[in-house]
Amino acid sequence: MIASQLALRYAEALYEIAAEKEALDGVEKQLGIVEETLVEFGELATLLYHPQVPLAAKKETITKVFGPQVDDYVRNFLLLLVDKRRETALPAIIREYRQLANKARNIAEAEVTTAMPLAEGDKQALAAKLSAVTGKKIVLNTRVDGSIVGGVVVKIGDKLIDGSVVRQLETLKAALLKTEVSKIGVTY
Q: Residues 64, 145: one domain?
């Protein structure tokens, strides 16, 4: 909980700078570059996140690796995280920043789980339907999970719509177990 509050506080600070400079999209893209680089080059992430690596080495690495790819204020933000020893919070900060930027742009991310991959037309139709319901532009993040058997599970923020076959079967089972045999017209 404290870590997420910390990440939100740093994300809000960066968001305010980006909004002031009218660069919400640009900063989000630059943070995406940082995130992708750290994922692709695990050694770099290890160096950046390791507590025994000297701060000067971390700062020099950030400047050399990301200096030409990001604006000065984004690089300075990354250096500030190192100075405050908060670099391990960077993935959470990036996630929080995206949420703040999306909220400002009236965009909601929907986590969609299906048993089989959705066709592009189905994705567009689902996004349009969810957009109509929420009043926001919807960005779908889809994943496939065969354990739901069929149907779709949608999570937008803290709202969950579970239309999976597994859930429907569980509901039916619970209803059947609650129903007394004599109430459905069966006699002994």
A: no
